[in-house]
Amino acid sequence: MKIGSIESGKYPVFLAPMEDVTDPAFRLMCKRFGADMVYTEFVSSDALIRRVNKTQQKLSISDQERPVAIQIYGRETDAMTEAARIVEEARPDILDLNFGCPVKKVAGKGAGAGMLRNIPKMLEITRSVVDAVQIPVTVKTRLGWDADNKVIVDLAEQLQDCGIAALAIHGRTRAQMYTGEADWTLIGEVKNNPRMHIPVIGNGDITSAAKAREYFDRYGVDAIMIGRGSIGRPWIFKEVKHLLETGEELPPLPFEWKLQTLKEQVISSVKRLDERRGIIHIRRHLAATPLFKGIPNFRETRIAMLRTESVEELFHIFDTIQPPAQEEG
User: Fold this and answer.
1) pLDDT of amino acid 326
2) What is the mean pLDDT of the chain?
3) pTM for this structure?
4) Which three-class secondary structure state does DSSP give residue 1?
5) Catalytic: which of 28, 35, 97, 101?
6) Neighbouring C-beta atoms of residue 234, cutoff 10 Å
7) Which one, of 111, 89, 87, 91, lies nearest residue 100 by Cα?
8) Catalytic status, residue 101
9) Which strand (E) or helix (H) includes residue 135?
10) CB 40, CB 61: distance < 8 Å
11) Average of pLDDT values for 294-313?
């Protein structure tokens, strides 16, 4: 599968862009475990053109991550176009347009998934950005605004006509947010549309290697994108890639190995920020990880783990945890 000149192999698996999750350290870890391409956290076009320091820092990428995509969002054509030119200077392999973020502070203001209520503006922005930069431009979006407006099949063709190099589709509407099950049937319909010739990337509810293989086979997508299934579980890429490449499930990874991986995430986060902020940043991963699922009487340990602001104390708590009788995740 190719996006522009970027070759990603037969069964590409990508790390989805996620705010407060896909920082440089996490991207590198997922890359190490097998992610074929990684995406930055989304970048506000308005903040970028105002040169807000915290936003500019999100453009920091390394050669070890490549291929890497930087994703931007916004609702105004001029701002998105200017932001795209600034992003191009950071030399990502791909520039991705976020037309899928459902959170109120983004979609409620007309950006992200809010663009699904203003398709002409979405297409105008896309055309303008494609014309403004030399690197491949891709789009990530959803099925539609709500159950009565699932527009993705027609929209996919329109976006393709704007000159994008690939399309990623999350199998939910904006109204669904992250609830219910992702519906991949329309993703498959887009992929099987004979008029579509750009790669179609499926996203939503990929939580296991078996599901990744099933969705490749059932819906024929060119690539799969893993988002929330990687939070607190970056080794999911190792599991998925092993099954896709060998046809066999990876033997269960040892509890101690996974715990060491989480420790590595903590250390990387603390190095990037500082001890207190680094630990607070990593709590999302610790709260989401399936590693501790099934451990009896774990509630008090979990509370202590998510309250501490000391690496020494956190690692002491880790070292007292006994693996569950049957490991998961």
Assistant:
1) 56
2) 95
3) 0.93
4) coil
5) 101
6) 27
7) 111
8) yes
9) none
10) yes
11) 93
